[in-house]
Amino acid sequence: MARYDAVFVGSGINALASAALLSREGWSVCVLERDERVGGAIRTVSDFTLPGFTHEVLSSWHPLFQGSATYAELGEELGQRGLEYRNTELPTATAFPDGAAMFLHTALEANVAEFERHATGDGAAWETQFGAFMANADLGFGVLGAELWSAQGLRLGRTALKRLGKQGTLAFLGSTLASCRDWCGATFASERAHGLLAPWVLHTGLGPDQASSGFMTQVIACALQLGGMPVPVGGGIRLVETLTGMVTDAGGVVRTSAPVERIVVSGGRATGVTLTGGEVVGAQRAVVAGVTPTQLYGPLLGNAAPADAKAAAARYRYGRAGMQLHLALDEAPRWRGPDAERLGRTAIVHVSAGLDGVSRAVNEAERGLLPAEATIVVGQPCAVDPSRAPEGKSILWIQLQELPAGRVRGDAAGDLDIGDGTWTEELREAYADRICARLGTSIENLAGATLKRVALSPLDLEALNPNLVGGDIYSGSCALDQNLLWRPFAQAPGHKTAVEGLWHIGASTHPGPGLGAGSGYLVAKALTRRPLPKRLLAKLPGRS
User: Fold this and answer.
1) 29-47 as b/e, with b when 16 or more CB fall inside 10 Å?
2) In terms of CB atoms within 10 Å, which of 56, 140, 285, 499 comes out highest?
3) Whole-angstrom distance, CA of residue 118 vs CA of residue 101
4) Residue 297 pLDDT more than 90?
5) What is the pLDDT of residue 175?
6) Is the pLDDT of residue 357 over 60?
7) Are 53 and 388 in contact (CB under 8 A)?
8) Over 50: is that where the pLDDT of 20 sits?
9) In this predicted model, what pLDDT tens digit does every residue of 439-492 receive, in sequence order?
């Protein structure tokens, strides 16, 4: 039986980052992936539509990773191994039905001017809110980057109390609970500004009327100004390849087509895994599982799962479903309206009627309906990395984040035959037709330039990655009772499980979904941290 210091179940961004960090510390690691390719939700495929067109089938954009602690630590070596990022000064915009648009830039001065363009006083409001957020950025970003149930979390709280005082800390905590609607309304006069920012809450798994969505809106907006919307040249596969190379060059093993059937628990400790077919791989120090709570406390642990965690996992809620459309275009998209040229240079354009439009579509989806006018997330990878398509051609990466969880109960527009509510090929293509027809009112050459379209329904997404349960691209509802301190749930928050030597990472754990590699980083640091007595001894005079 092969034995390693750490065995990883799954090869998503958190697993690969954690494995690379441990490898640098001299750990022997083994990453086991059920699929025939490594990378989890990073799935770069050439010829997904047509030869020469490179598509990110699932996740696409890397601002969270490039701004992460993992990248700060590994970025130099990743660059030496060939990872190159490109960025844009126009990370995002919203295109409104009347042809108007509003943009978020990477420069403060440009954003002040843009907000002021839409309402007198909003420019100053943007500058004020950005300055206020950055004054406590270590707290704001820290909430999303710290192991909250640990001494690190306590230190974060102590910093807040020391700097802000009791009342200031309470005010800060209270502000993190505000909804996007309340925060936008209290901060900006222009409905265009609300419409620029509100669609971004969808990227956190929330809706604009949910608790904490205002805080997440601030975090994302400030992060976009600071870091833009970077993508790896050639696709996310370049990040996967360089992280994998760090592991294998250090003597580690990364295996594909190696589905894990059971986590082996002996004497209350995780000691390895059993693969489908019976092969056992031993773990001397840790088993790290990048799966959903449903998988972890269900089939993977079986009878070894703690009863309270098993019961909580059975109640774990999955959120709204997502859908992806991939278009190969014969030419660059031509946007309508006076801001067409800038829209063509923007990484992600939300096509939306604004905050109320997002709210309405979320509400329809949560009632089991296909939204009449969904928020269309239009990614333009070629605006940042032209190598994704042949010269003169282009691609669109379209994401829809407001679809019902489970069976579809109806169509809000009353136009589509949903059958029994199952995502059939016919329903998928009919809904994709609706989206493209509406997008065609914003992109004048969309119909004529489209060479091929590939649509992925919620069922298709889950088939590609079992962590996307029911097509939930965030691996679990991000409502407050399943987020931050409570992710994945109160009975097993954080990453260290009740089973000794077993750790839980991935989108279902804090800090949640995205390509930030946050949970993988936190677990790697926890595993390599010296025990407290040794840390205290090291601080004594004459000791190192």
Assistant:
1) bbbbbbbeebbbbbbbbee
2) 56
3) 10
4) yes
5) 87
6) yes
7) yes
8) yes
9) 999 999 999 999 999 999 999 999 999 999 999 999 999 999 999 888 999 888
Residue found under tokens 């773990």? 283
Closest listed residue to residue 359, CA positions, set 183, 201, 209, 215: 209
The residue type at 256: T
Encode pLDDT of 87-119 as tens digits: 999 999 999 999 999 999 999 999 999 999 999
Residues 6+ apart with CB under 8 A from 96: 102, 192, 195, 352, 353, 354
Torsion, Cα of 475, 477, 481, 483 (10° steps)? 50
* One-letter identity of residue 25: E
Provide CB contacts within 8 A for 512, sequence distance 6+.
144, 204, 205, 474, 478, 483, 487
The DSSP secondary structure of 256-280, one letter per residue, reads SS--EEEEEEETTEEEEEEETTS-E
Whether the pLDDT of residue 531 is over 80: the answer is no
- Tell me the two tokens of residue 446: 């969309």
* Tokens of residue 295, six digits: 């998988």
Region of 313 please: left (phi>0), alpha (psi -120 to 50) or beta: alpha
Question: How many residues are listed for the chain in this entry?
Answer: 544
d(CA 266, CA 178): 45
Q: Which residues are CB-neighbours of 388 under 8 A, at least 6 positions away?
A: 53, 54, 55, 235, 381, 382, 395
* Tokens 């843009």, located at residue: 114
- CA separation for the pair 320, 471 (Å, rounded): 8
The pTM (predicted TM-score) of the whole model is 0.94
CA-to-CA distance for 350 and 348, rounded, in angstroms?
7
Is 23 in contact with 48 (CB distance < 8 Å)?
no
The candidate with the shortest Cα–Cα distance to 69, out of 511, 508, 538, 532, is 511
Measured CA to CA, the distance from residue 283 to residue 465 in angstroms comes to 25
Are 204 and 221 in contact, with CB atoms under 8 Å apart?
no
Q: What is the pLDDT of residue 262?
A: 98
Percent of the chain with pLDDT over 70: 97
Strands (E), 188-303: 231-232, 253-255, 260-266, 269-275, 280-289
Contact between residue 390 and residue 51 where contact means Cβ atoms under 8 Å apart: no
What is the per-residue pLDDT for 540? 56
| Cβ proximity of 273 and 290 under 8 Å | no
User: 170: which DSSP letter?
Assistant: H
Q: Would you say residue 143 has pLDDT above 90? A: no
Helix (H, G, I), strand (E, B) or coil at 321: strand
Helix axes 518-528, 69-80, angle to 10 degrees: 90
Predicted pLDDT of residue 141: 87
Structural contact between residues 483 and 206, judged by C-beta atoms closer than 8 angstroms:
no
Considering just the CA atoms, what is the radius of gyration of the chain in Å? 23
> End-to-end alpha-carbon separation of the chain, Å?
38
Is residue 536 scored above 50 in pLDDT? no
